[in-house]
Amino acid sequence: MRFRRGLPLTATLSLTATLGLAVTLGLVATMILINPGTVGGQPRAESPEPDRTAADSAALDLFETCAGCHEDEASSFQRGPHSVLDRDGLAAFHGAVSGCTACHGDPTAHLDSGGEAGNIFAFGEGELANVKSAQCLTCHGDSHPGYFASRHAAAGLDCSSCHSMHSNDGVSRSLLKPTADGTGFPALGAHSGALGGASASCAECHTDVLAEFEFNERHRLQEGILDCSSCHDPHASSARWRLAGFKQQQCVDCHADKSGPFVFEHGAQKVEGCVACHQPHGSPNRHMLTFQSTAELCYSCHAGVPGFHTRFTADSGCTNCHSTIHGSNFDAAFLK
Ligand code: HEC
Ligand code: HEC
Ligand code: HEC
Ligand code: HEC
Ligand code: HEC
Ligand code: HEC
Ligand code: HEC
Ligand code: HEC
Ligand code: HEC
Ligand code: HEC
User: Fold this and answer.
1) Which of 71, 243, 246, 275, by CA, is between 20 and 30 Å from 125?
2) Regarding predicted confidence, which is higher, 138 or 16?
3) Rounded to whole angstroms, how far apart are CA atoms 47 and 130?
4) Which domain range does residue 179 map to?
């Protein structure tokens, strides 16, 4: 009830019905329904509606028309972030649309038929994924420019594969879909001490990845220290994701001490990033390394080592001497 101040939705609707669509009463209705100055249903008579345009009023009337038949959707809409689309001035922002038609498009046929299914855009199974996503990207394209080049778009996912517009209960972080097992909404974020909202959402499909967080050596995802979206942007283009520098940036945001720049950088990192040596989700090996034996890890890239190294075995701790393995400002062989 964020924007129908002072009146519950049902009251608003019956009031609207009583007042009808009479143009002369439109201003009064608008004041009661929207005016921030309305207190407990009592409009402050002297408070005018300075910025409302004819388009805004038309949009609001249209919204009420939809709401009259679709109370549940109107209610979820008003508890979610998109309710701003129904606020002053935003009608003008995207043409004379009501909050509903911003996503559902032209309602003429639907209204003319008195509300038949199949004649208004409804993000249905039969629609192409990219057509559905494009509907959202008319507004969210600036923040998610790479979506169509992402692995998720390529796999046929659209925005509503992960986001839910009408089943949210008003608390779901970023409108994430309820989990399939019915345990509720992935509402909790990172640092909450539980599997975070984004992680719970991702885990719906990537169960194999979630299993990697079961290893002893792992990032503490289940405890909410971080979540999948600490490292991944599910909307980002896959090209960006493949770049080593980018991959590394994800890590050094938190592990700043590994970021350098060092006078002597370890070439390993430059090509594949941190994942040249670490499994980012978790691994059975200490420090989430890709090999149990450090020597085997090093020898997987280094064929030529000084002769005295022949005495070292697979169990030798190469990092006992090469202790600044992530880079050094003093020694080219990372000995200090
Ligand atoms: C931000 C975009 C968006 C807005 C705004 C929006 N919808 Fe929807 N609507 C969707 C999507 C996406 C679906 C498909 C189901 C889902 O993802 O929740 C949908 C589904 C529906 C359905 C079909 C539900 C079903 O069970 O099949 C109805 C009816 C509906 N919306 C009505 C409305 C009304 C009325 C409004 C305005 C109060 C509105 N929508 C505002 C995006 C939106
Ligand atoms: C006179 C009542 C009425 C009005 C007004 C109305 N609808 Fe509907 N709408 C319906 C009915 C009935 C259905 C079919 C529901 C069903 O079959 O489950 C429907 C279905 C829908 C669907 C799903 C269509 C589909 O193919 O699955 C959407 C989306 C929708 N309406 C959006 C809107 C929007 C947006 C508005 C306002 C512009 C609106 N409706 C106004 C009665 C109405
Ligand atoms: C007409 C423009 C418009 C369209 C179309 C639209 N949105 Fe939005 N969306 C907004 C605005 C405005 C906000 C509120 C932004 C804010 O509060 O900063 C928002 C908020 C959101 C949020 C919450 C953002 C947050 O910070 O938590 C999500 C998720 C979202 N939209 C997804 C979608 C999806 C999915 C669709 C398509 C089904 C869609 N939007 C269609 C304008 C739009
Ligand atoms: C694979 C799942 C997935 C798909 C597909 C997806 N999203 Fe998201 N989206 C998420 C998750 C998870 C978050 C929350 C990230 C977080 O909280 O750290 C999010 C956050 C958002 C937000 C709010 C925060 C932000 O990054 O701006 C918006 C807006 C949004 N998504 C819009 C969209 C739109 C538009 C589409 C379709 C073009 C889309 N999403 C497709 C999973 C998805
Ligand atoms: C609705 C199912 C679904 C959800 C939810 C989902 N994904 Fe995906 N994801 C896929 C599919 C399908 C692919 C493409 C096939 C593949 O590469 O495994 C994919 C691919 C990926 C890839 C690229 C894999 C590669 O090999 O390049 C990453 C990374 C990824 N997802 C991360 C995430 C994250 C992070 C989230 C949560 C924010 C998430 N996904 C949510 C289905 C999903
Ligand atoms: C600490 C950062 C981090 C976290 C947290 C993280 N990932 Fe990843 N993830 C990566 C990196 C880095 C790669 C690339 C690995 C490579 O290129 O060898 C990757 C690879 C992937 C891939 C493709 C390769 C594969 O293993 O299948 C998927 C899918 C994926 N992550 C999904 C997820 C999901 C889902 C979550 C949460 C449950 C998650 N990731 C959490 C950093 C992270
Ligand atoms: C959101 C912050 C964050 C990001 C991003 C992040 N980490 Fe971590 N990482 C942590 C925290 C916190 C720990 C401490 C382990 C714990 O107590 O959970 C950790 C632990 C580790 C460890 C184990 C340290 C040990 O003592 O065994 C390694 C290795 C590691 N991270 C590598 C990476 C790599 C590689 C990436 C990029 C793919 C990455 N991290 C991204 C926060 C992060
Ligand atoms: C050439 C292989 C290699 C690369 C590349 C690499 N690491 Fe490591 N990392 C190691 C080894 C080996 C250890 C164990 C050190 C030891 O035995 O004391 C380690 C330990 C760690 C630890 C835990 C111990 C500590 O010093 O805090 C973290 C955290 C870590 N690495 C993060 C990263 C990050 C972040 C990156 C990318 C910027 C990265 N590593 C790149 C080999 C590598
Ligand atoms: C993913 C491949 C890879 C792994 C694994 C790796 N390195 Fe390297 N290392 C490199 C590359 C590439 C260089 C730069 C070589 C050059 O510039 O000629 C390098 C450079 C070095 C150097 C500097 C001397 C030189 O040859 O230029 C030392 C010492 C070294 N690595 C030790 C180690 C140790 C010890 C380990 C195991 C903890 C290790 N490396 C693991 C790829 C790797
Ligand atoms: C007892 C200390 C010690 C241990 C243990 C050790 N190294 Fe070294 N390493 C050195 C010294 C000293 C050098 C020579 C540095 C120089 O020539 O400037 C060297 C040089 C190297 C170089 C080549 C550097 C160059 O400049 O070409 C590589 C690669 C290397 N070690 C890898 C390893 C690997 C792999 C292990 C584990 C199996 C290992 N080291 C264990 C002390 C050690």
Assistant:
1) 71
2) 138
3) 45
4) 129-231
Return the amino acid letter for 205: C
Give the distance from CA 299 to its chain's centroid: 40
What's the CA gap between 169 and 76, in Å, rounded?
Answer: 7
Give residues (CB < 6 A) around ligand 5: 151-152, 155, 157, 161-162, 198, 201-202, 204-206, 228-229, 232, 234, 238
For the ranges 81-95, 172-186, 305-319, the lowest mean pLDDT is seen at 81-95
Whether residues 108 and 13 share a domain: the answer is yes
Q: How far is the CA of 326 from the centre of ligand 8 (A)?
A: 6
Question: Does the pLDDT value for residue 4 go beyond 50?
Answer: no
Q: How many domains does the chain have?
A: 3
Residue 209 belongs to some domain of the structure: yes
Between CA 99 and CA 117 the distance in angstroms is 19
Amino acid at residue number 136: C
Asked whether residue 247 is assigned to any structural domain, the reply reads: no
pLDDT number for residue 190? 47
SS3 percent helix, strand, coil of the chain, rounded to 5, is 45, 5, 50
